Amino acid sequence: MRKSKRINWSSIFSLRSILYTIFGVISAMIALEGFMLPNHFLDGGVTGISILVEAITLIPFTYLLVLFNLPFLYLGYKKIGKTFAIRALISIILLTILMHFIEIPAFTEDKVLIAVFGGFLIGLGIGLVIKAGGVLDGMEIMAFYTTRKSAFSTAEIILTFNGLIFLGAAFVFDIETAMYSFLVYFTAAKTTDYVVDGFEEFTALSIISGECDQVKSLIVNDFGKAITVYKGERGYLPGAYNVKHDCDIVMTIVTRLEIHRIKEATIKIDPHAFFFVQRIKEVKGGIGKQTAKDPFEDYVRTDLQESNIKPGE
């Protein structure tokens, strides 16, 4: 990752960043004071460590949250960038200030409701702050840095650390609290993923069909999606290994909401079409997601007009 050398103050104090940060911090505060802290329920990462240490030492949670996040913020400052570190520091300090001056009574004593809604709200808060360009929990900074130094993935590193935290909760509190805390963590992680990545998660849909020309036309002209075509071979079946023929593998980027519609339309063309679906983490460039007015399309059209080139040439 290329580290930012200058602090982008206009980005930090943009309206979008401010709103995401404020709503994210408020959501996290409600989760912590209204659900998690009164019942010693843990989330993963620095938040979980702070709750655990507060129970042992009686040091206020807000002090511990800032203290334990400082090393990770310094790591983010050195390895990611100054703007990121400033955003993260503002978010954490704002959370501690609001929790210090605003008291929220516990909403319920039902442990399942606490785990589910506490996890949802803390995950929503973390996700909104991430969308603003910061973090409320520095553990992911360390996981990102450790990933580059080891053979383990970010998810494996975070899961290992959180497993140790929940094990500590079992000793300090009890097994039941540790199990409910894992439910909090799972709910928070899923909510954060949805907030950051969106409900329309992008997916690579690949189709192999004997009617590939009609399938290409269907996806491009009827569904308005861009495609990539790979050249391959079809056949090599058990008992008929030597039987093979060339084929086109049509791949397009879709959302989960579009997969079923494209499959149904393709099966009407070729009932024997073969599909396989792969999740992808990020789409950038090209025409990955259609909008009402696609700036990429406008750029191409303008470029063609200025060059006196007709589309298709």
UniProtKB/TrEMBL annotation:
Localisation: Cell membrane
Q: How does it sit in the membrane?
A: Multi-pass membrane protein
UniProt-listed Pfam families: DUF2179 (PF10035), YitT_membrane (PF02588)
- InterPro entries reported in the protein's UniProt record: DUF2179, N-reg_PII/ATP_PRibTrfase_C, UPF0750_membrane, YitT
Q: Where are the transmembrane segments?
A: 12-31, 51-77, 84-106, 112-130, 151-173
- What GO terms fall under cellular component here? plasma membrane
Predominant cellular place of this UniProt entry's protein: membrane
Transmembrane helix recorded as keyword: yes
Q: Which UniProt keywords apply?
A: Cell membrane, Membrane, Transmembrane, Transmembrane helix
| Residue span(s) of domain DUF2179 | 227-285
- Record's protein name: Uncharacterized membrane-anchored protein YitT, contains DUF161 and DUF2179 domains
The organism is Salinimicrobium sediminis
- Give the lineage: Bacteria, Pseudomonadati, Bacteroidota, Flavobacteriia, Flavobacteriales
